[in-house]
Specification:
382 residues, Rossmann fold, seven-stranded mixed beta sheet, single chain, elongated, alpha/beta, 32% helix, VC0802-like
């Protein structure tokens, strides 16, 4: 039984834990920023292929206690790296420290790299090259106060890179965060879904893939394909099964719009490239003018933050207009806004029923849930 750690955007750990349980993982344990689990390699393949929430699936190959860089070197050297990948594969090492007593993580990284290279030299007489841009194999080291853990990354490029989105407008949302927000909203395929500030179409792409049962990793390659223990037959069987499950693109009551015509064009291009354009209806319309496409449904938006729009005053003027549009046209809808502007509900004068802390990269945000029940959400002036 192998030990793994799946990383994810902070705030989505419990969603990832239930996903992994569904893939057959055991000993599933959520912690800050990810989920530890056990399983055979097919569980790892499946998590890479089908997880909508994970960022990386890391396979634990070593652990121990350390006091200095020499301990890290020795602990790394003692592991049988040539058993896991070929000397002809380039590799890189990434070190993360939490309460780590060492003065320099760069020096720790160098010592771990040296240990891997020296182990190869001892075993096969030559060493693999380092490539920090596009390595065949990524090694991750996590250094706590007294313990270290060494992992081989089975994902390669991060899993939010679905291989779908070709173009983007500024500050695009990561795909796994978008998928997590859709899950948190409780939206189910078949229900109307609207993103009235669709940007490059990330929410639309993720919702369309969910509705059509398309695995997020079905159009890309993974790090585990470069490892010596890669079981090509098992992988092909698993992948074929998942591809057969996918439904052909047809309209899924998913709607997207944006006030910026360029954003609508970028969304259209991304959906077309992904073969999902038929699943979504797009329009060029301002958020404050957008009509409700149905009597009830789920609205999800990532409104511009101060960081993106530049002027707090512009936002302060936009929020009340957004609120008016919601009250006028969207009673019966559940609406969700991801923002790092904590003033949003107050300036909209709408009371959120939930505030979920989420991180968009390093930015601490809130997902505000505002249920548009006719006439009951407006805050009365005291």
């Amino acid at each position: 039984m192998n030990q793994f750690f799946a990383t994810c955007p902070r705030g989505l750990e419990s969603l990832l834990a239930s996903e992994l349980t569904g893939f057959g993982a055991s000993n599933v344990k959520a912690t800050d920023g990810g989920v530890g689990f056990s399983g055979e390699m097919p569980v790892c393949y499946r998590a890479n292929l089908e997880s909508r929430i994970a960022t990386r699936i890391l396979w634990q190959v070593g652990r121990g206690r350390y006091a200095n860089e020499d301990d890290l070197y020795q602990g790394t050297f003692n592991l049988n790296w040539p058993e896991w990948f070929n000397v002809g594969h380039d590799f890189m090492v990434k070190v993360t420290g939490v309460k780590c007593p060492l003065k320099s993580l760069e020096f720790a990284t160098l010592r771990i790299k040296d240990a891997i290279c020296d182990r190869f030299r001892q075993a096969v007489g030559s060493r693999p090259y380092i490539d920090t841009k596009e390595p065949d194999v990524r090694v991750h080291a996590y250094l706590a106060a007294e313990d270290y853990q060494l992992y081989i990354d089975t994902s390669g490029n991060p899993l939010y890179q679905r291989g779908l989105r070709r173009a983007s407008v500024e500050a695009p949302l990561r795909e796994n965060l978008a998928a997590g927000i859709i899950r948190l909203s409780g939206w189910q395929p078949g229900q109307p879904l609207l993103d009235p500030m669709c940007g490059s179409g990330t929410f639309l792409l993720e919702a369309a893939m969910m509705a059509l049962d398309i695995a997020p990793g079905s159009g890309r390659h993974f790090g585990f394909e470069k490892l010596k223990n890669f079981d090509a037959a098992t992988w092909e069987k698993l992948r074929s099964k998942v591809l057969q499950r996918a439904k052909p693109a047809s309209f899924q009551k998913i709607y997207g719009s944006d006030a910026d015509l360029r954003a609508v064009r970028v969304s259209r291009e991304n959906l077309k490239q992904a073969g999902l354009l038929d699943a979504v209806q797009l329009s060029h319309v301002d958020m404050t003018e957008v009509p409700a496409p149905a009597d009830s449904g789920v609205m999800i938006a990532n409104p511009p933050y101060g960081i993106r729009i530049g002027e707090d005053e512009e936002l302060a003027a936009l929020y009340p207009r957004m609120a008016e549009a919601l009250k006028r046209r969207f009673s019966g809808w559940n609406t969700y806004f991801l923002t790092n502007d904590m003033r949003l509900p107050k300036l909209m004068r709408l009371a959120p029923s939930k505030r979920t802390p989420l991180f968009n990269g390093p930015l601490e945000c809130r997902l505000f849930e505002i249920k548009m029940v006719a006439g009951s959400n407006r805050r009365e002036k005291s």
